[in-house]
Amino acid sequence: MEKNLRLDRGQIEVVDDRVAEILSKKTGQERLEMVWDSWNFFCQWIEAYVKNIHPEWTQEQIQKEIARRVMYGTK
User: Is residue 15, in this structure, part of any structural domain at all?
Assistant: First the structure.
């Protein structure tokens, strides 16, 4: 039986029941590894993007831009 899922300002994310079941069976370490892998992918993706649009930048400038993008809106 399929249920209706609402996507509006009152609900940011909807997790499918099958996904919730799979995640609930993972250990804490497995969940942390998933988050760590996602974070690493995110940082690598931003780094590749910044290098592509600013090939003249130094690694230090690239790292500062990554930090700026990650920290945006956290003030």
Answer: no
